[in-house]
Amino acid sequence: xxxxxxxxxxxxxxxxxxxxxxxxxxRIVEPTSGQITLKGRVASxxxxxxxxxxxxxxxxNIYLNGSILGMTKKEIKKKxxxxxxxxxxxxxxxxxxxxxxxxxxxxxxxxxxAHLESEILLVDEVLAVGDAEFQKKCLxxxxxxxxxxxxxxxxxxxxxxxxxxxxxxxxxxxxxxxxFEDTSKIVSQYDNNPxxxxxxxxxxxxxxxxxxxxxxxxxxFLQDKTLDINTSIKFxxxxxxRKPGIKAYCGFNIYNEKNDRVIFWRDIELTxxxxxxxxxxxxxxxxxxxxxxxxxxxxxxxxxxxxxxxxEMIHFPSKLxxxxxxxxxxxxxxxxxxxxxxxxxxxxxEFRHTNASS
Length: 358
Description:
alpha/beta; 6-stranded mixed β-sheet; 15 strands
């Protein structure tokens, strides 16, 4: 039970059922058992650009998306300037959205959903695509919506954000509610077991139209699963398509020991080009992360294959790729200096001598 004006966090590994839960709440899919009682109008932001027409401009899509969410033309007109101002896409308002980046999609989609006068707002982790400034803006908006009496259900892997805005949270595991408590207790439970045991998801290859057939690291290890910080890290992912013309995209997530998502990437734009002429067969992805990107520490890679049209998971392999990044800098080791950041990106330094008397 979620009360009016609460911000509820939903935490869990990929494949735990977080997005499916929001789709059921949005009435996109029907639950196989049980029932849901909603009091009030629901606005949802589940997939980037859901309801957007690629050929229409940003201006036209505000009206289109707003009407899909249940806003009247009069409501959209009244809030049009606020939506545009919040989204920050003013300069590109009359440009077809097919030319928008994924970040611009999110800005516009969230702006429309947030300005719908609904009692309940459902937000999936599409905010991860936006930049830091926009994410801060969105979180502030969700906080103000809750204070005004609206209920927000927020799915995220960003534990810091969950702790900041959600008083209570649900921990999902394999489609079941593992716990429903104060966020601090849920986060503690989740952090203490980043490699939570989960039921192995069994896929029958004969029934899958597409799947991730193999994942591997191409680098030579310094020792057991340890990589040098001075070299780029390369992953090889093989996708097997059994039917022609399948519209799917692949996603990659890299998490550290604390289960913070350090790298997030998905190939929607690249796949859109491939999907037009997608044939049966194996497609290989080589994902390369430049040297000095990941700070020394332990990480794991997760991959998933999703339907580009419906946004539903096609294949989520149970196999995770674990690896470690090592820094061989002897002085640091000698003095046992810790790494305090999530990344180790090198900076460019310009040094100039200026004459004080000039």
